């Protein structure tokens, strides 16, 4: 289900995250955004060091990138960028978007974020510059609704809040999380059907996320 179809001028989406590990939920949400906004392509950007959260069991960035690479080759609309990994240091969204836009001749990119991050955007680095230069597409996750988000305080002013709420995607509700997958691996449980087979094999071969 879709909230609203907008006549927007961007054709490339940027999907950032830890992808620790990549799972089918990520891919289904990516497809929902591609279809809703008729994007030509979507760039997965695994973070090097996330600025706003810490994961004690965050796999090395090289592993998380390697799990993405064979998957994006299966769909011509998908790309992967190692920009945040190569730059090292803390990853800030505005820096990534500006760099990727320059690489593509100044094309306008949209950034894909979970709806649960919207009330926290005001804490992001150079958030005013980010919102003025790059549209944000928000994925409405289980437990959130358009009406509930509308009642939350974004600390960004009414005009920017309205723009953020215009670009919501109510995609397929897929209750899969990377944290649950890591827990299952640590406890010796199967992760079949939760992640692509290529990711499952890579995790097993490299002994990732074991207790």
What's the level 1 CATH class? Answer: Alpha Beta
Helix share, percent: 25-40%
CATH architecture, by name, is: 3-Layer(aba) Sandwich
String of helices and strands: EHEEHEHEHEHEHHEHH
What class would the helix/strand composition place it in?
alpha/beta
Reported by name, the CATH topology is Rossmann fold
Quote the beta fraction. 5-15%
How many H/I helical runs? 9
As laid out across the biggest beta sheet, the strand order is 4-2-1-6-7-8
Domain count:
1
Largest sheet data: 6 strands, parallel
Kindly state the number of beta strands: 8
Global shape: globular
Rg on CA atoms, Å: 17 Å
Weakly predicted, low-confidence segments:
1-7
| Ends apart, CA distance between termini | 39 Å
Quick description:
The chain has helices at residues 24-36, 61-72, 83-87, 93-103, 127-133, 146-151, 158-166, 178-186, 197-206; strands spanning 12-17, 41-46, 49-50, 78-80, 90-91, 109-114, 136-139, 168-169. With 211 residues, it is α/β, with parallel strands linked by helices. The chain has one domain (12-175): HUPs (Rossmann fold, 3-Layer(aba) Sandwich), CATH 3.40.50.620.
Descriptive notes:
- With 211 residues, the chain is of the alpha/beta class.
- It has one domain (12-175): Rossmann fold.
- The chain is built from nine helices and eight strands.
- A six-stranded parallel sheet has the order 4-2-1-6-7-8, with helices on both faces. Strands 3-5 form a two-stranded parallel sheet.
- Helix 5 (127-133) links the parallel strand 6 and strand 7.
- The longest helix is centred in the N-terminal third of the chain and has 13 residues, at 24-36.
- The model is unreliable at 1-7 (pLDDT under 50).
């Amino acid at each position: 289900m879709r909230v609203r179809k907008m006549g927007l001028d961007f054709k490339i989406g940027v999907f950032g995250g830890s992808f620790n590990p990549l799972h089918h939920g990520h891919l289904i949400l990516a497809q929902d955004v591609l279809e809703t906004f008729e994007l030509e392509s979507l760039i997965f950007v695994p973070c090097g060091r996330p600025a706003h959260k810490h994961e004690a069991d965050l796999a090395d960035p090289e592993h998380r990138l390697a799990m993405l690479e064979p998957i994006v080759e299966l769909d011509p609309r998908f790309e992967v960028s190692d920009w945040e990994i190569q730059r090292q240091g803390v990853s800030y969204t505005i820096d990534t978007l500006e760099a990727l836009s320059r690489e593509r001749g100044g094309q306008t990119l949209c950034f894909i974020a979970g709806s649960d991050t919207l009330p926290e955007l005001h804490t992001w680095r150079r958030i005013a510059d980010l919102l003025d230069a790059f549209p944000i597409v928000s994925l409405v996750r289980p437990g959130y609704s358009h009406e509930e988000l509308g009642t939350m305080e974004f600390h960004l002013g009414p005009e920017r809040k309205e723009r953020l709420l215009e670009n919501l995607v109510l995609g397929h509700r897929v209750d899969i999380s990377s944290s649950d997958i890591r827990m299952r691996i640590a406890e010796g449980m199967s992760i079949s059907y939760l992640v692509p087979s290529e990711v499952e094999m890579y995790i097993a071969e490299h002994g990732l996320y074991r207790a």
